[in-house]
Every structure is written in structure tokens, then in C-alpha cells.
Amino acid sequence: MKLPIFVVVVLLVIVLVFSLNFVSAPATRVGQVVSVTTTSTQQTSQSGSVKLRGPSQVDVVIEGQGVTAYYSPTTIVVVIGVNNTVIWYNPDVVIHTVTSVNQTRSGNALFDSGFMNPGQSYTHVFNSTGSYPYICAIHPEMYGEVIVKSS
Predict the structure, then answer these.
(1) Which CATH code fits 25-149?
(2) 107-117: per-residue pLDDT in tens?
């Protein structure tokens, strides 16, 4: 079966794009752990990445652009009943996802934003203790982790 030249070109472009996506995020962000307390109503990091707007919300921002994007902070620690709502923001120029690595018994991700277009956000409330690693399903070199503790 012969494939039309257009299909071959599209497939080659897809392979090229995915091979370029294996560029890792800056090493200074790898392993960064942030534990957010609720002693103030708003807390912002030097880069403006981590914000606590109220007693129950923690923000994660996709920083960088395209294949060099990463979640900031990479790892957060939240406490059930204190700050267990996490909101991910996508200010990048490309689509990203927030997709749990852990799965349900039926094989679905525990949480999944679906495609987040530029400017969109995704919110998830964590109600069970544990470690919740996640990736961008489009750019799997983007990863993060939410560690949930009991109050």
C-alpha cells in the first residue's frame, strides 16, 4: 500500500517534533520542592511562579516555551483541608496537559486536564494522602509531583 506524499511528510514532521521534545527542562528546576503554608493570604516566589491566593489553593505555572517548558514548581506539598486545591496555568504558546501517571483500576489517569490551550488553567482537589506524579501527555519530559499529607 502506497501512502500519499503528504501523509509521509506529516509523519516525518511528527517524528521530528517528538524527537525535539526530549530536551530537558533547566537543571535548576529539577527536584525543586515547595511546601506552601497558609500564614499569609498571598505568597509569591521571586519569579512569580508559586502563589497562594487563599487558605486552600496552590498554583503551578508552566514556564518556558514549547519543548523547553516545565512545571514550576516541579514538586509541591499540600495538606488536606488546608491547601489541597491545585491550579495549573498554561501561559505558554503551545498546548499542554496535566496528566496523572497513576491510574485507576480501569486504566484511566487519576486526574487529567485534557488539552490546555494557551491561557487556560486546570484545577484539581486532592482528597487522599499520597504521592501524585504527573506529566504533560504531549511533552512527557515535563513532569511534576504533588505530595498530599493529612492535616
Answers:
(1) 2.60.40.420
(2) 999 999 999 99
Whole-angstrom distance, CA of residue 91 vs CA of residue 117: 9
86: number of CA atoms within 13 Å, CB side? 32
* Residues 149/79, Cβ–Cβ less than 8 Å: yes
Q: Dump pLDDT digits (tens) for 24-50.
A: 333 333 344 444 333 323 333 334 444
Which region, left, alpha or beta, applies to residue 77 given φ > 0 means left and ψ of -120 to 50 means alpha? Answer: beta
If you count DSSP H runs as helices and E runs as strands, how many of each does the chain have, helices first? Answer: 1, 9
Going from N- to C-terminal start, the domains of the chain cover 25-149
pTM over 0.90: no
Cα–Cα distance, 108 to 88 (Å, whole number): 20
Please check whether residue 98 is in contact with residue 72, taking contact to mean a CB–CB distance below 8 angstroms: no
Grid coordinates belonging to 93: 504558546
The C-alpha atoms of residue 32 and residue 53 are separated, in whole angstroms, by: 21
